Amino acid sequence: MAAVSESPVFRATTTAPVNIAVIKYWGKRDATLNLPTNSSLSVTLSQRSLRTLTTASCSAGYPAADELTLNGKPQDIQSSKRTLACLASLRAHRQELENANSSLPKLSTLPLRIVSENNFPTAAGLASSAAGFAALVRAVADLYGLPQSPRELSRIARQGSGSACRSLMGGYVAWRSGELPDGSDSLAEEVAPQSHWPEMRALILVVSAEKKDVPSTTGMQTTVATSELFATRANAIVPARMAAIETAIQNRDFPAFAEVTMRDSNGFHATCLDSWPPIFYMNDVSRAAVRLVHDINSIVGRAVCAYTFDAGPNAVIYYLEKDSALVAGTFKAILGSSLEGWSGPFYESLKDVSSPGVALDQVDSRAVDVLKSGLSRVILTAVGEGPVSVEDHLVGEKGEILSRQ
Ligand code: 2P0
């Protein structure tokens, strides 16, 4: 039980979103600074479905060592170089403020107590490090009253987890790889806000958990060291795709967005297969989802949906709200409404859909069987906003740890 404090407790609380890349980050040019070999681009997902809630607090009454509690479990901060790097950068920025203005309380000298909770189960198989580090950096920056913009803070979050730098903003977010050896130009920036193209939807097909995948940090280092395809991807293919997807987003051109997204997912997984020894993240259930997306697009006669896969078997399927019946309606008819996850904030446009958007006898029946037997749940979500400052503190006025779960 954490000690309750008599000294003043300073607090700030934020939520932060998950993001799913459409141009994948895979490969580091500097593992210590966490600098990528190529730029990447993601869609920030709505916090109405998935979010991390984090309170950062500090007090002279806390024990001397900084503390971090994730989903109710105390973490060993000292063994996490990435967390230490983020906290050291944030403290240094606070110290600059205190040096410039002696009337400010010396928060940089006080021990931190940070408490964080995800609103989605770890069992959902979604990587939580992006939302987690984005929330940690945003909450401590708010606690310290830092003037730095989300773009500048992304440099700090990147050191926690590469993909975390993209969760500091909403909408459509690019992480520019940068060129400088110190990483000062390796930053995330908003390509377009959520309001530019708010109709984007995402259906996440959560594949029943099997054995643990190769962790992405290890996997990407194996790929950089051993894949002969990798250099072409990083140097030639991704720069062209970044330009193409940014144009597609600016023009709200879903067919172009869809093709680049699917090709980049396939290209990233091809470099995994080309690694030595090979790395497999997609499985038979993932490949069934790929087949069905191509079948739906071909039956409809235009690209209405696009799949993408990260370092695991789950499929994320992007589509536009107007095509909900065609895309989500077809998957719902295939999977059955008893599968968990259909209800929720983005269910409205599907509520009245009673028949599949495309005739099920026209899609691959084996893929249907494999998908039906291989999923544990779905998550229906959409493009969303960046971190939001809230008052649902996870640390009480006296420093006690609270829970919202
Ligand atoms: C991405 N992934 O762009 C890619 C696509 C997985 C596949 O970012 O080592 O957890 O912490 O920088 O950010 C997963 O890698 O890796 C990832 P680290 P991270 O979203």
Automatic annotation (TrEMBL):
Highest taxon of the lineage: Eukaryota
Domain Diphosphomevalonate decarboxylase-like N-terminal: 16-188
Pfam families (alphabetical): MDD_C, MVD-like_N
Gene3D superfamilies assigned: 3.30.230.10, GHMP kinase, C-terminal domain
Nucleotide-binding recorded as keyword: yes
Alphabetical keyword list: ATP-binding, Kinase, Lipid biosynthesis, Lipid metabolism, Lyase, Nucleotide-binding, Steroid biosynthesis, Steroid metabolism, Sterol biosynthesis, Sterol metabolism, Transferase
Enzyme Commission code(s) on record: 4.1.1.33
EC primary class: lyase
A single MF term (Gene Ontology): kinase activity
Catalytic activity: (R)-5-diphosphomevalonate + ATP = isopentenyl diphosphate + ADP + phosphate + CO2
Biological pathway: Isoprenoid biosynthesis; isopentenyl diphosphate biosynthesis via mevalonate pathway; isopentenyl diphosphate from (R)-mevalonate: step 3/3
Ranges where the Mvd1 C-terminal domain occurs: 202-388
Keyword Lyase in annotation: yes
InterPro entries assigned: GHMP_kinase_C_sf, Mev_decarb, Mev_diP_decarb, MVD-like_N, Mvd1_C, Ribosomal_Su5_D2-typ_SF, Ribsml_uS5_D2-typ_fold_subgr
Family (UniProt): Belongs to the diphosphomevalonate decarboxylase family.
UniProt name for this protein: Diphosphomevalonate decarboxylase
Biological source species: Aspergillus lucknowensis
